[in-house]
Design brief:
Blueprint: H1 2-6, E1 12-16, E2 33-36, H2 42-47, H3 71-78, E3 100-104, E4 107-112, E5 122-123, E6 130-132, E7 142-145, E8 148-151, H4 161-177, E9 184-188, H5 194-200, E10 205-209, H6 211-222, E11 229-234, E12 248-253, E13 258-264, E14 267-268, H7 274-277, H8 280-290, H9 299-305, H10 308-318, E15 324-325, H11 328-338, H12 350-358, E16 370-374, E17 377-381, H13 383-394, H14 399-425, E18 429-433, H15 440-452, E19 456-458, H16 470-483, E20 494-495
Parallel strand pairs: 1-3, 6-9, 9-10, 11-18, 13-17, 18-19
Antiparallel strand pairs: 1-2, 3-4, 5-8, 6-7, 7-8, 10-20, 11-12, 12-13, 14-15, 16-17
């Protein structure tokens, strides 16, 4: 951590808070960690006086919008929340966020790859000239040229016009700086993503790449894995080949192809995207399914959630605005709500982050779960786990114990299913990817327990495990498919 803080790149480093620190808890409510960085410009140093030891910093942007880098834009959009502006007659040409890193098990893990890291290239031989447009959340894009991959800086979430324009401007900047003209376009399978719509505007051959396959290939790439591996990908959302929302996935894959071999059982998301912002909806959905979708058996559910649950159950029964998901992120949301920690969120991943922060690391117990096999697919059923969580909640068990027992259960089911898959496939290498693996508690325990079982485990170091690394996976998968001599390119790529 000290090397990262004092090195030439000067990222924000996520540090464990000291018990006796005197910093305000309002900096990062309900957390055990803080993001810290040291001054990296002369201007930063001038901001400190003899009486100032610490400054609390935040990016110059409205939540969800790109960083303001023009004086006029800053004044118009930030005047309501900022008292003073320090301006200069030399304009900022290219805005870029600070990079964010956390150290896990003596290894750096990049959470946000931007200033100080991007666009430092990665070596990759035999690449075509491809533009990978990236995902919608935590977007980065990637270009391949002359044996190198250039991954862009963090662009934010493509959920509004301002961020989308910022994204397109950055792509044009890369084209200019690297004298790059793509011959092929790779993009996410989700038809509604703005990055997908941007890709489809090109009159070039295009290839749609499955989100979690791209996650896993990005992990394989930075660990120099060419052969098939077992992939475990846990995140919040990703468009599946069946049109449903994936996110609790077990795959056998290489760069060319993937086979989905296991997943978390599908569950309804009452209200669709609203269920992400209101985790209590996922709590109700999971407990209702755990009751056998029998209203008569929902006494404890109603005891926890009251009358609001009845309306939501009606929505689930009628299948109105209830897309199905296998997302591990949504299971974390459900449990965080059931144990009474987080019913509504104000930022992405809040429920899961707070669940990790309160967990008691000394707890070894876990809840029950079931893994069934349907033809060639393993299905993880967490319903007994959810019933036990609710019973603990109603019995007054400490929240830190419930949080730990739940995460221990996720560790146990992940390791068990990997052992089943090793028996089926003979593959002993496991790649872990997806935003859920930013959870230190989970990543450390799953990695350790898999290694104890004799697996070779591979995780992210130089690329984010979240969606910030997906574009690298997209570009490698597209290149592998284009270059496969036994498959006609037109079988995979459409020219529109």
């Amino acid at each position: 951590e000290e090397e990262l803080l004092t090195g030439i790149r000067k990222p924000i480093v996520i540090l464990d808070q000291k018990i006796d620190d005197d910093l305000p808890q309002t900096i990062a409510p309900h957390q055990k960690t803080l993001g810290a960085m040291l001054p990296y410009t002369p201007l930063h140093s001038l901001l400190f006086s003899d009486k100032i030891e610490v400054l609390i910093m935040t990016s110059a942007n409205v939540n969800g919008l790109p960083i303001e880098h023009l004086d006029s834009g800053a004044r118009s959009s930030l005047s309501g929340i900022v008292d003073y502006f320090l301006i200069h007659n030399r304009e900022i040409y290219l805005p870029i966020d600070d990079s964010v890193i956390r150290v896990m098990e003596e290894k750096q893990t990049i959470i946000r790859r931007a200033r100080g890291f991007a666009p430092e290239p990665f070596r990759a031989l035999n690449m075509r000239d491809i533009l990978a447009c990236g995902p919608n959340m935590k977007n980065t894009f990637c270009i391949s040229k002359e044996g190198f991959l250039f991954l862009s800086q963090f662009n934010g979430d493509l959920e509004n016009l301002e961020t989308f324009e910022h994204y397109k401007n950055n792509i044009e900047h890369f084209k200019k700086v690297f004298s790059f003209s793509p011959k092929f376009i790779a993009h996410d399978m989700h038809p509604g993503y703005l990055s997908t719509k941007y890709a489809l505007d090109y009159h070039l051959p295009k290839l749609a790449v499955q989100h979690h396959h791209a996650h896993l290939v990005s992990c394989m790439f930075e660990n120099n894995l060419e052969h098939k591996v077992l992939g475990v990908c846990f995140d919040g959302t990703g468009y599946g080949t069946d049109g449903k929302i994936w996110g609790g996935e077990f795959m056998v894959c290489d760069r060319f192809e993937f086979t989905r071999v296991g997943h978390l059982d599908y569950i309804e998301m009452p209200g669709g995207e609203k269920a992400i912002k209101e985790p209590w909806r996922m709590g109700v959905a999971y407990l209702y399914k755990a009751s056998g979708t029998n209203r008569e058996a929902c006494g404890q559910l109603f005891e926890r959630y009251g009358k609001d649950a009845e309306k939501l159950i009606g929505m689930i029964d009628s299948k109105v605005n209830c897309p199905q998901t296998s997302s591990m992120g949504r299971l974390f949301d459900a449990v965080s709500s059931i144990i009474g920690k987080t019913d509504q969120v104000t930022y992405e991943g809040q429920a899961a982050i707070e669940l990790e922060a309160i967990s008691d690391p000394d707890i070894q117990d876990a809840y029950s779960y079931t893994i069934i096999k349907q033809q060639d697919m393993y299905i993880i059923e967490p319903y007994e786990m959810l019933r036990e969580v609710l019973q603990d909640k109603l019995n007054g068990v400490a929240i830190k114990i419930m949080a730990a027992k739940f995460q221990n259960s996720v560790v146990a089911l992940s390791v068990r299913l990997c052992t089943y898959l090793r028996e089926d496939t003979g593959i002993n290498e496991v790649a872990l990817s997806g935003g859920v693996f930013q959870n230190t508690y989970l990543l450390t325990k799953i990695s350790h327990n898999l290694e104890t079982e004799g697996f070779n485990v591979y995780t992210h170091t130089h690329l984010p495990s979240n969606d910030g690394g997906v574009a690298i996976g997209q570009i490698l998968i597209a290149n592998a498919i284009i270059g496969n001599s036994t498959v006609g390119v037109n079988q995979f790529i459409r020219d529109e």
